[in-house]
Specification:
This protein is an alpha/beta fold and 323 residues long. The protein has helices at residues 2-27, 56-64, 76-81, 114-118, 135-148, 160-165, 202-213, 235-246, and strands spanning 43-52, 84-89, 123-125, 152-154, 167-171, 174-182, 218-224, 251-255, 263-266, 269-272, 277-279, 289-298, 301-313, 316-319. Strands 1, 2, 3, 4, 11, 12, 13 and 14 form an eight-stranded mixed beta sheet that branches. A six-stranded mixed beta sheet has the order 5-6-7-8-10-9.
């Protein structure tokens, strides 16, 4: 009898022990999933300068200094530190004929590209009223020279499609798309327009922005337009710049008036109507005072645009506003 009771008791104890073990296993808290630390969006800093003309008295002084990079010596370090550096190239390069010394038709010594290289310029707009100053040869020579120098070109191409396509530069995983336009390309020297130079047209601008937005995270538009030496933008500038923002551009950079004009917030973007001159030799009031726009992006989002004043002294721009 005792043996039977002991056996029965042992079975009950075994069942009870197993039940307790199962209960304990079910009551254990689930293991926490490991969460990867969140990677903050990258910060990219872009620098934008205005009109750059590398001939006439600018070229004379560079030759006197025996330094083709002379015009950029005082600002090169700041531009070179930027993730992307942009300027408007106002003078075509050519190895035919002598560089311009006077007048309004520009031909620059190819050696003077040294300044753009010293400053680490990544992309230039070549769409302006001086693009064709050295005619067909100068236009193609300039495109070739910039390509060999690994400087991207917007607003001008070997065909119309290339001129309109713009360029995309990627930095830290963010794709920045650039397109450029000019209000005029004849400069009084040509009777017809060249399709390889992107003219300022509302329909064209909207189409081009739509296309480049499909290939980039951020769209930046360069517009060469305005009334020379006017302190305020004209109706065409306002119309085109605002249309660019409405079409999805984050930033519009303007040049041509040779003096500075206002920068303003517009809807979801920023418009700088004219940065004035960066490298030039003019003597009219205001033409030696320019602005460098420093745009900071967090991922694809424009966080702020800081304006830094420059003054041109003996063809060299120097920063007035410290970094």
């Amino acid at each position: 009898m005792l043996a039977k009771l002991s056996g029965s008791l042992m079975k009950r104890l075994a069942v009870l022990s197993l039940s307790l073990l199962l209960l304990a296993a079910c009551s254990r808290p689930p293991k926490k999933k490991e969460v990867s630390p969140e990677i903050p969006p990258p910060i990219n800093r872009l620098l934008f300068g205005g009109d750059v003309m590398l001939t006439r008295h600018v070229g004379v002084v560079a030759a006197q200094q025996k330094d083709p990079a002379w015009p950029f010596r005082q600002i090169a370090a700041d531009f070179a530190k930027a993730d992307i550096a942009f300027v408007n190239l106002e003078s075509p390069f050519t190895d035919q004929g002598s560089p311009t010394r006077t007048g309004m038709v520009f031909r620059a010594d190819p050696a003077n590209i040294a300044g753009l290289l010293l400053a680490g310029i990544d992309v230039v707009s070549f769409a302006n009223n001086h693009t064709r100053d050295s005619y067909e040869y100068g236009l193609l020579y300039t495109l070739d020279l910039l390509e060999r120098s690994k400087i991207a070109v917007v607003g001008v191409g070997r065909d119309e499609a290339t001129a309109r396509a713009g360029v995309v530069l990627e930095r830290q995983g963010v794709k920045f798309g650039f397109v450029a336009y000019t209000y005029d390309q004849r400069n009084g020297n040509h009777k017809t327009d060249d399709a390889r130079i992107n003219g300022l047209d509302l329909v064209r601008l909207r189409e081009d922005i739509s296309n480049i937005r499909g290939r980039s995270n951020v769209t930046i538009v360069s517009i060469h337009a305005g009334t020379e030496y006017a302190k305020q933008p004209n109706a065409q500038q306002r119309l085109m710049a605002q249309a660019a923002i409405e079409a999805g551009a984050a930033l519009v950079i303007g040049h041509h008036p040779h003096v500075t004009q206002p920068c303003e917030d517009y809807r979801t973007g920023v418009i700088c109507y004219s940065l004035g001159n960066l490298v030039f030799d003019q003597t009219i009031a205001g033409t030696n005072d320019g602005i460098v726009a420093e745009a900071e992006f967090k991922g694809p989002s424009l966080r702020n645009v800081r304006l830094r004043k420059i003054k041109i002294l003996n063809t060299q721009p120097v920063f007035v506003t410290p970094r």
